[in-house]
Design brief:
heterodimer, A: 141 residues, alpha+beta, five-stranded mixed sheet, 4 helices, 30% strand, B: 138 residues, 5 strands, 29% helix, elongated
Protein backbone atom coordinates (compact mmCIF):
# COMPACT_ATOMS: atom_id res chain seq x y z
CA UNK A 1 0.00 0.00 0.00
CA UNK A 2 1.25 3.47 -0.85
CA UNK A 3 -0.05 6.56 0.90
CA UNK A 4 0.80 10.10 -0.14
CA UNK A 5 0.58 12.92 2.39
CA UNK A 6 0.64 16.58 1.52
CA UNK A 7 0.91 19.39 4.06
CA UNK A 8 -0.78 22.79 3.76
CA UNK A 9 -0.83 25.87 5.95
CA UNK A 10 -3.38 28.51 6.76
CA UNK A 11 -3.42 31.27 9.35
CA UNK A 12 -6.83 31.97 10.84
CA UNK A 13 -8.51 33.29 13.94
CA UNK A 14 -11.52 31.89 15.73
CA UNK A 15 -13.54 32.16 18.89
CA UNK A 16 -14.98 29.16 20.69
CA UNK A 17 -18.41 30.20 21.89
CA UNK A 18 -21.66 28.28 21.75
CA UNK A 19 -25.05 30.00 21.74
CA UNK A 20 -26.40 27.02 23.69
CA UNK A 21 -24.49 28.05 26.81
CA UNK A 22 -24.47 31.14 29.04
CA UNK A 23 -21.52 33.56 29.08
CA UNK A 24 -20.14 31.99 32.24
CA UNK A 25 -20.66 28.42 30.96
CA UNK A 26 -18.81 29.33 27.75
CA UNK A 27 -15.91 30.79 29.76
CA UNK A 28 -15.83 27.68 31.90
CA UNK A 29 -15.98 25.30 28.92
CA UNK A 30 -13.66 26.98 26.42
CA UNK A 31 -11.38 28.97 28.76
CA UNK A 32 -9.06 31.41 26.95
CA UNK A 33 -10.46 30.25 23.61
CA UNK A 34 -13.69 32.03 24.55
CA UNK A 35 -12.03 35.48 24.51
CA UNK A 36 -14.69 37.70 22.83
CA UNK A 37 -12.25 39.17 20.31
CA UNK A 38 -10.97 35.79 19.14
CA UNK A 39 -7.41 34.59 18.70
CA UNK A 40 -5.48 32.87 15.94
CA UNK A 41 -3.32 29.94 14.92
CA UNK A 42 -1.00 28.90 12.13
CA UNK A 43 -2.86 25.74 11.25
CA UNK A 44 -1.08 22.86 9.54
CA UNK A 45 -3.31 20.59 7.50
CA UNK A 46 -2.13 17.17 6.34
CA UNK A 47 -4.12 15.40 3.65
CA UNK A 48 -3.39 11.67 3.16
CA UNK A 49 -4.42 9.88 -0.01
CA UNK A 50 -4.27 6.20 -0.95
CA UNK A 51 -5.10 4.35 -4.14
CA UNK A 52 -3.58 2.38 -6.98
CA UNK A 53 -0.15 3.39 -8.28
CA UNK A 54 -0.78 4.64 -11.82
CA UNK A 55 1.61 2.62 -14.02
CA UNK A 56 2.17 5.48 -16.49
CA UNK A 57 2.66 8.42 -14.13
CA UNK A 58 4.15 6.42 -11.23
CA UNK A 59 1.84 8.40 -8.93
CA UNK A 60 -0.94 7.55 -6.49
CA UNK A 61 -2.25 11.08 -6.83
CA UNK A 62 -1.31 14.00 -8.98
CA UNK A 63 -0.06 16.40 -6.33
CA UNK A 64 -0.78 19.44 -8.47
CA UNK A 65 -4.42 18.41 -8.84
CA UNK A 66 -4.64 17.78 -5.08
CA UNK A 67 -3.00 21.16 -4.36
CA UNK A 68 -5.50 22.88 -6.59
CA UNK A 69 -8.44 21.14 -4.91
CA UNK A 70 -7.27 21.87 -1.34
CA UNK A 71 -6.33 25.42 -2.26
CA UNK A 72 -9.68 26.30 -3.85
CA UNK A 73 -11.86 24.38 -1.35
CA UNK A 74 -10.00 25.14 1.88
CA UNK A 75 -6.89 27.31 1.95
CA UNK A 76 -8.16 30.26 -0.10
CA UNK A 77 -11.32 30.36 1.99
CA UNK A 78 -9.67 29.90 5.42
CA UNK A 79 -6.29 31.63 5.14
CA UNK A 80 -6.12 35.05 6.85
CA UNK A 81 -9.77 34.83 7.87
CA UNK A 82 -11.78 35.03 11.07
CA UNK A 83 -13.42 31.63 10.77
CA UNK A 84 -16.55 32.49 12.79
CA UNK A 85 -17.41 35.46 10.59
CA UNK A 86 -15.79 34.74 7.23
CA UNK A 87 -16.44 31.03 6.64
CA UNK A 88 -20.05 30.07 5.97
CA UNK A 89 -20.15 26.81 7.97
CA UNK A 90 -18.82 28.41 11.17
CA UNK A 91 -21.64 30.87 11.42
CA UNK A 92 -23.64 27.91 12.75
CA UNK A 93 -20.93 25.57 14.07
CA UNK A 94 -18.32 26.37 16.75
CA UNK A 95 -14.93 26.25 14.96
CA UNK A 96 -13.19 23.74 17.22
CA UNK A 97 -10.46 21.78 15.44
CA UNK A 98 -12.81 18.80 15.39
CA UNK A 99 -15.44 20.80 13.53
CA UNK A 100 -12.88 22.38 11.21
CA UNK A 101 -11.76 18.86 10.20
CA UNK A 102 -15.37 17.83 9.51
CA UNK A 103 -15.95 20.89 7.35
CA UNK A 104 -12.70 20.31 5.42
CA UNK A 105 -13.58 16.65 4.86
CA UNK A 106 -17.05 17.58 3.62
CA UNK A 107 -15.70 20.23 1.26
CA UNK A 108 -13.05 17.91 -0.19
CA UNK A 109 -15.49 14.99 -0.54
CA UNK A 110 -18.01 17.17 -2.38
CA UNK A 111 -15.53 18.14 -5.12
CA UNK A 112 -13.45 14.93 -5.15
CA UNK A 113 -15.46 13.08 -7.88
CA UNK A 114 -15.17 16.04 -10.25
CA UNK A 115 -11.36 16.05 -10.20
CA UNK A 116 -10.38 12.39 -9.63
CA UNK A 117 -11.57 9.22 -11.44
CA UNK A 118 -13.76 6.71 -9.56
CA UNK A 119 -10.99 4.06 -9.49
CA UNK A 120 -8.31 6.67 -8.68
CA UNK A 121 -7.04 8.23 -5.45
CA UNK A 122 -9.13 8.07 -2.26
CA UNK A 123 -9.07 10.47 0.66
CA UNK A 124 -7.73 8.38 3.54
CA UNK A 125 -7.37 10.83 6.42
CA UNK A 126 -6.87 14.47 7.28
CA UNK A 127 -4.94 15.85 10.24
CA UNK A 128 -5.05 19.33 11.67
CA UNK A 129 -2.31 20.74 13.87
CA UNK A 130 -3.77 23.71 15.71
CA UNK A 131 -0.52 24.29 17.59
CA UNK A 132 2.64 22.24 17.99
CA UNK A 133 0.93 20.50 20.90
CA UNK A 134 -2.53 19.78 19.47
CA UNK A 135 -3.11 17.26 16.70
CA UNK A 136 -6.54 16.18 15.45
CA UNK A 137 -7.13 13.41 12.94
CA UNK A 138 -10.19 12.38 10.96
CA UNK A 139 -10.17 9.09 9.04
CA UNK A 140 -12.31 9.41 5.94
CA UNK A 141 -14.01 6.02 6.32
CA UNK B 1 6.19 -2.32 19.33
CA UNK B 2 7.40 0.01 16.60
CA UNK B 3 10.88 1.46 16.24
CA UNK B 4 11.86 4.07 13.67
CA UNK B 5 15.26 5.09 12.37
CA UNK B 6 15.75 8.22 10.31
CA UNK B 7 18.27 8.87 7.54
CA UNK B 8 18.83 11.54 4.91
CA UNK B 9 20.11 11.61 1.37
CA UNK B 10 20.33 14.28 -1.30
CA UNK B 11 19.64 13.37 -4.90
CA UNK B 12 18.45 14.80 -8.17
CA UNK B 13 15.80 13.44 -10.50
CA UNK B 14 13.55 14.17 -13.46
CA UNK B 15 9.91 13.13 -13.47
CA UNK B 16 9.07 12.44 -17.09
CA UNK B 17 7.49 9.40 -18.70
CA UNK B 18 9.30 8.56 -21.99
CA UNK B 19 6.04 7.45 -23.62
CA UNK B 20 4.61 10.97 -23.24
CA UNK B 21 5.48 14.19 -25.09
CA UNK B 22 7.34 16.99 -23.27
CA UNK B 23 4.07 18.96 -23.16
CA UNK B 24 2.20 16.02 -21.64
CA UNK B 25 4.96 15.53 -19.08
CA UNK B 26 4.85 19.22 -18.22
CA UNK B 27 1.07 19.01 -17.71
CA UNK B 28 1.43 15.87 -15.55
CA UNK B 29 4.48 16.64 -13.42
CA UNK B 30 4.84 20.43 -13.70
CA UNK B 31 8.32 21.84 -13.01
CA UNK B 32 9.48 18.35 -11.90
CA UNK B 33 9.62 17.41 -15.59
CA UNK B 34 12.49 19.84 -16.31
CA UNK B 35 14.78 17.67 -18.50
CA UNK B 36 17.94 18.80 -16.71
CA UNK B 37 16.59 17.64 -13.37
CA UNK B 38 16.36 19.17 -9.91
CA UNK B 39 17.11 17.89 -6.42
CA UNK B 40 15.74 17.22 -2.97
CA UNK B 41 17.04 16.57 0.52
CA UNK B 42 15.13 13.36 1.02
CA UNK B 43 14.38 12.28 4.58
CA UNK B 44 13.75 8.58 5.14
CA UNK B 45 12.04 7.04 8.18
CA UNK B 46 12.25 3.26 8.41
CA UNK B 47 9.85 1.65 10.91
CA UNK B 48 10.19 -1.91 12.19
CA UNK B 49 7.59 -3.82 14.17
CA UNK B 50 8.27 -6.60 16.66
CA UNK B 51 8.44 -7.69 20.28
CA UNK B 52 11.59 -6.77 22.18
CA UNK B 53 14.05 -9.63 22.59
CA UNK B 54 13.77 -10.62 26.29
CA UNK B 55 17.56 -10.88 26.58
CA UNK B 56 18.60 -7.61 24.88
CA UNK B 57 15.42 -5.60 25.49
CA UNK B 58 15.58 -4.50 21.84
CA UNK B 59 13.22 -5.02 18.90
CA UNK B 60 16.21 -4.68 16.58
CA UNK B 61 19.75 -3.40 17.01
CA UNK B 62 19.56 0.23 15.86
CA UNK B 63 23.27 0.25 14.96
CA UNK B 64 22.59 -2.66 12.64
CA UNK B 65 19.50 -0.92 11.22
CA UNK B 66 21.57 2.19 10.57
CA UNK B 67 24.11 0.06 8.69
CA UNK B 68 21.40 -1.72 6.64
CA UNK B 69 19.90 1.65 5.59
CA UNK B 70 23.37 2.97 4.82
CA UNK B 71 24.26 0.02 2.56
CA UNK B 72 20.88 -0.44 0.85
CA UNK B 73 19.86 3.19 0.35
CA UNK B 74 22.28 5.94 1.33
CA UNK B 75 25.44 4.61 -0.38
CA UNK B 76 23.73 4.00 -3.73
CA UNK B 77 21.42 7.07 -3.74
CA UNK B 78 23.14 9.91 -1.87
CA UNK B 79 24.49 12.65 -4.15
CA UNK B 80 23.32 10.80 -7.25
CA UNK B 81 21.15 11.66 -10.23
CA UNK B 82 18.56 8.91 -9.73
CA UNK B 83 17.49 8.60 -13.39
CA UNK B 84 21.06 8.09 -14.64
CA UNK B 85 22.79 6.37 -11.75
CA UNK B 86 20.31 4.30 -9.75
CA UNK B 87 18.44 1.44 -11.45
CA UNK B 88 15.50 0.92 -11.98
CA UNK B 89 15.07 4.70 -12.38
CA UNK B 90 16.57 4.53 -15.87
CA UNK B 91 13.24 2.84 -16.75
CA UNK B 92 10.90 3.77 -13.86
CA UNK B 93 9.91 7.40 -13.21
CA UNK B 94 11.47 8.37 -9.83
CA UNK B 95 8.31 9.84 -8.30
CA UNK B 96 8.26 9.87 -4.49
CA UNK B 97 5.89 6.85 -4.68
CA UNK B 98 8.31 4.84 -6.83
CA UNK B 99 11.42 5.83 -4.84
CA UNK B 100 9.67 4.79 -1.59
CA UNK B 101 8.66 1.45 -3.15
CA UNK B 102 12.23 0.84 -4.38
CA UNK B 103 13.59 1.59 -0.89
CA UNK B 104 11.04 -0.85 0.56
CA UNK B 105 12.20 -3.55 -1.89
CA UNK B 106 15.86 -2.92 -1.11
CA UNK B 107 15.35 -3.06 2.67
CA UNK B 108 12.92 -5.99 2.88
CA UNK B 109 15.42 -8.88 2.46
CA UNK B 110 17.50 -7.64 5.41
CA UNK B 111 14.74 -8.54 7.88
CA UNK B 112 13.91 -12.04 6.66
CA UNK B 113 14.37 -14.48 9.51
CA UNK B 114 14.60 -11.59 11.98
CA UNK B 115 12.25 -11.11 14.96
CA UNK B 116 11.48 -7.64 13.60
CA UNK B 117 9.58 -7.06 10.38
CA UNK B 118 9.64 -4.07 8.08
CA UNK B 119 6.47 -2.12 8.92
CA UNK B 120 6.67 1.16 7.04
CA UNK B 121 8.96 3.20 4.83
CA UNK B 122 8.23 6.93 4.97
CA UNK B 123 9.99 9.12 2.45
CA UNK B 124 9.82 12.90 2.70
CA UNK B 125 10.56 14.51 -0.65
CA UNK B 126 10.04 17.92 0.96
CA UNK B 127 8.71 18.96 4.38
CA UNK B 128 5.29 19.28 2.77
CA UNK B 129 5.17 16.00 0.83
CA UNK B 130 5.78 12.47 2.04
CA UNK B 131 4.90 8.94 1.02
CA UNK B 132 4.31 5.88 3.23
CA UNK B 133 4.99 2.51 1.67
CA UNK B 134 4.02 -0.80 3.30
CA UNK B 135 4.81 -3.10 0.37
CA UNK B 136 1.97 -5.48 -0.44
CA UNK B 137 0.37 -5.08 2.99
CA UNK B 138 -2.64 -2.88 3.43
Amino acid sequence: MTRVTRRYKFAASHRLHSAQYSESENRELYGKCNNPHGHGHDYLLEVSVTGPLDPVSGQVVNVRTLDNLVSTQVVQDFDYKFLNADVREFQEVVPTSESILRVIQKRLAARWPSVFPVDGPRLESIRLRETGRNLFELRAN
Amino acid sequence: MLITRKAEFSASHVCAQPSLTPEQNRALYGPASNPNGHGHNYVLEVTLQGDPDPATGMVFDLKQLKEIIQQAVIEPMDHRFLNYEVPPFDKVVPTAENVAAEIWNRLLPAFQGSRARLENVRLYETEDLYVDCTGDRR
